[in-house]
Amino acid sequence: MPLPRFERLPADRRESILGAAREQFAAHGAESASYNKIIEAAGISKTAAYHYFDGREDLLAAVLDGVLDRLLAALGPWRPAGDPAEFWARLGEGAAALADHLRRHADDLALADAAIDRAADGPWTGWFDAVVSDGQRLGVVRTDVDRGLLVAATAAVVRAADAWALARMRGGAADAPASELSDGRQLWPLLRGLWASDDGTAAGDGTR
């Protein structure tokens, strides 16, 4: 985590430094971006950098924490649904909000996988744990698979769908409108297949 001297900087200066670092990590990769180039882009000396962060990995962790915070803010907290139809509607709202955020923040999109991987057992997984739990309560999500595995698989499917849809939108695909995630044409079949038990008794909502 950032050192105390960094936390004492004015908020706009902290964001400027983290923003410059985020751009470099997004452009060159979380594992490949040069610490010296990041420092140069941030407009700080190497001495100052080591007063603010305990090296490159500490700075990367701060950047990825910020990315994850914004992804979770876009999703918002999961609220229990009253019935399966409402469950799917809320899931669609969350997927659309996340896709919209990533569409407008290319750096967060580039670093989302690294941020999520770093938070494997943190609040990101907690959001999907709440979704799976609610779905199981409503009979939408199977209960014959280990819960931890099902939560991890659900998070991976949703993230992959986000990245796929946004890549198509950036590429100008004629059949890739902004609603591609929110209307569920691609994501829902994937989740239904993941969440359905062998006898097909889960993953239904009666409306789609």
From TrEMBL:
Pfam families: TetR_N (PF00440). Transmembrane segments: none annotated. Residues 11-71 form the HTH tetR-type domain. InterPro entries: Homeodomain-like_sf, HTH-type_TetR-like_transc_reg, HTH_TetR. It comes from the Bacteria. Residues 34-53 bind DNA. One of its GO terms (molecular function) is transcription cis-regulatory region binding. Keywords: DNA-binding, Transcription, Transcription regulation. This is TetR family transcriptional regulator.
